[in-house]
Amino acid sequence: MKPGIILVDDDNSGRNMLAGFLEKHGFNVSAFDNAESALETFSREGFDLALLDVKLPGMSGIELTSKLKSIDPTLPVILITAYGDIGTAVSGMKAGAADYLTKPVELQELELVIEKQLENRRLILENKLLREQLSDNKPDYIVAESRQMKEILSTISRISATDTPVLVTGESGVGKELVARIIHENSGFSGAFIPINCAAIPENLIESELFGAEPGAYTSANKRKQGKIELANNGTLFLDEIAELPLMLQPKLLRFLQEGTFFRLGGTQELSPNVRVLAATNRNVEELVAQKKMREDLYFRLAVIKINIPPLRERHEDLAVLAENFVAKFAEKHGKAIKELSRKALNTILRHKWPGNVRELANSIERAVLLTRHEILSPEDLQLLPQSLVSESELLCDVEKNHIEKVLKETGWHLANASERLGIHRNTLRNKMNEYNIHKPE
Fold it and tell me: Are the C-beta atoms of residues 106 and 84 closer than 8 Å to each other?
């Protein structure tokens, strides 16, 4: 179905030009010359995006923005304003508009902005649906304030109900098993989630742990043993630290992934359980393949879908919310009357590098909650080592770099529009891009 756009502009020629351009590029457009008629139609039909001129007869575009957002908070609104009315456009952003363009509108830029806002809306709706599906049995603390995590949740919502293998990558402690459990919870499978840590089991035992064994298969095997694959029937097998799976076992796992069948160790009966396989690793799998430490065909079979979870230090939006969530969780768990983090404590958390990621954050806050004598956690309660903190200037530079990259992407790497949005001269923007090594992707 084509995305629906509601277009409101009292200039007939401009409205007809925009409507024709958008329809030519695959959108269903309903065009109006006044806000009142547009609002009445929107209330009945609903649309995917609104494109509004700021100056309209009667109700203004900014007033219309507020009313449309009250009906559908997820609706992206793009305002069109004269170049000299940037302040008005900022007021529109405060009213809920997602973006603005100045007249005369550059059609190529308009298409990029619309595509970006429709993608944002899709992510918001998918994430909302996923959270509703998880409801009461959702895993602990699903936080997706950053765009990276929103995209991960969007991917999860699209692939959970399939039986496709998924490889989850990322540093230790980022939440790879949590992502695997979310996929399982939303798969609709009736069976259990069965994890196995390939690095924690001795090499001489892992085959029987994974595939099971018949009596007499090895010295101490005096009865039939079901492996983790059988136990995961009609459910999910999670192979944590898959890069540590011994090379001699990889062909057997590959056969199961390709054929859906296997033999127990020492067995002659072919088994074919219905199992979804998810795997995770903190290693660089491509390097392991190049070094012949992992079979290339197994890697490709496992990584039909690949989800990479960025480290916590690259997700400040998630970091702040996670920290607040952990304070509330551990205060309740330990019966402590702790209200919140102080501003200085939160700043300290944002400056910490968190090499242990979410796991380290949770442990640090639980320790602080247990030991503090105060209602508000201070930097001293967190007991983070000074050498593990980035400087204030480094933190500000990181924030500035991320903001510049964000604005450049949103404006389609249009330097004039980006510098205007950032409130700096175009030459200053170029200097900042050189300083932070920011380049337009090929």
Answer: no
